[in-house]
Amino acid sequence: MAATLALALGACSANSEPAQPTLAAVPTVSDGSATVAEVNAFSTFNSNTGHGNTDINARISYATHSGFFYIDNNLNVVRNEKFGKMEKISDDPLTVRYTVNEGVKWSDGTPVTAADLLLQWAAFSGYYDDADAGGKTGTSYFSYAGDRTGLALTEFPELGADNRSMTLKYSKPFADWEVAMGGPGIDIPAHVLAAKAGLKDVRALVELLKNTPRGDARAQRPANAELRALANVWNSGFDTKTLPADPMLFLSNGPYIVKALTPDQSLTLVRNKDYNWGPEPKLDEITVRYIGSATAQLDALKNDDADIADLQASADTVDELTALQSQGVTANIGNQLAYDHLDVNFTGPFADKNIREAFLKTVPRKAIVDKIVKTLDANAAPLDSQVFFPDEAAYADAVRDNGSSAYQDVDIEAARRLLDGATPEVRILYNRDNPNRAAAFSLIRDSAGKAGFRIVDGGLGASDWGGALGGGTYDAAIFGWISTGVGVAGVPQVFKSGSGSNFNGFSDPDADKLMDELVGTTERSKQDSLMQQIDKKIWNSAYGLPLYRTVGVIAYDNRMDGVKFMPSQTGAWWNFWEWAQK
Known about the structure:
- This protein is an alpha/beta fold.
- The protein has 16 helices and 19 strands.
- The strands form 4 sheets. Strands 1, 2, 9, 10, 11, 12, 13, 14, 15, 16 and 17 form an 11-stranded mixed beta sheet that branches.
- Helix 2 packs across helix 4.
């Protein structure tokens, strides 16, 4: 889905894949090029940071990096043993060994080694952090967007003598161990990070990580200056809207390499000719154009300025989409494992729960659904859970008891009573280049104004809004979460105290305990029970409101082959190596 953060969220059920059109056999060519239209604009070569983890950044990372697995459109974890081997060598204690094959290398010729695996573990695990849950004291080093609960259960890894393997030992069971190292690619080269942070070489990086003790919020230490310098480069040293002069800042170990970047306009990928350690692409070049409007994306398809469009369509584009399907364009439409939502910060005017509740009672969720998605999905309705989708068995039970019934309809009079004469000013962040988000903002602004709220337009451009999340420059935000469709670690990623993707400051110690239990639970019925309890606590806090489940539209020119619908975060890109010109 365009214009959402590409973050795992909850244990989501697989959607059935829309039927593919039946076409006569047409030969495809193993070269050529394609142009893809995307809503958001590229902003960083490290999509794992809290501010960089938008869908477009993650999709470019996916095309330029490789790893131990990928997730297919049936939401299966598919091992890539051409890259290396991921082996569970013990259940008690849970022990997993990762081994990178010989010959796997970065695009500067440097081998991918155990040091790269160790760096990814260090960034993802939070092993060195000693900050308290609220982040008021102590140090947090790597600004990782994902959930750290699982990898935080590991000891310092054992590195193999071959310099290509790393073994993790967990202190407790962990449900999502198979995708714990994230990615699915190995993204940041250790030798580059070492050089940029002022370390002598990659061996010095490994020694620094080995010799720095584990962080403990109960026994905080002064920040380690070398580790902080290393983390600072990881956090922001790869952020850019233009192609860096130093090619070390955009190295690839995957099928493609970034060749060109035009700020807020386009990006060009070219084939990595050395790559043979995973599915090999058929196209020599892919150009990505950033087009926020679904109408403009469809115009690009119509005018042969794009071959594939991963649309965030709305009711306004249905007729155009239908017309194009008679002009050589195929559209696959289906529910995504994603939803748009409105979150309110627990600071500023919303530090008072009464103000939060008052604001949420003004949100016209049904009008938003009617305006944006009803024509695409006749059954669309406001989403009433923060952790389940309507086609999941636990959804109905969760909704019955989670407190969402208090926000079914707009209630201006109730909002006024809660405000008690106050007229709070509320700045709302959203992607102003996304028509759906702009429409939702307008409807919320107009409705909230009737109760006495003074709404300030805090919309930012396509490449800037993601970086503003959690930055304290707004009071509420409209954006989206999209799930990998695998595992449960996305729940604490978003809702646990101090998590890298907890942008609004929600904190509930009891919910934190439930989330810790969740990631160690492998039985689905127990996971559902825990998630229902978490869902209720989120609603009871006046956290914000889920708006609607998003409808995914992948449209492509019939001259393209290999394009298939995917309900989760990689979208059409999940099998980009199969794309070909007929």
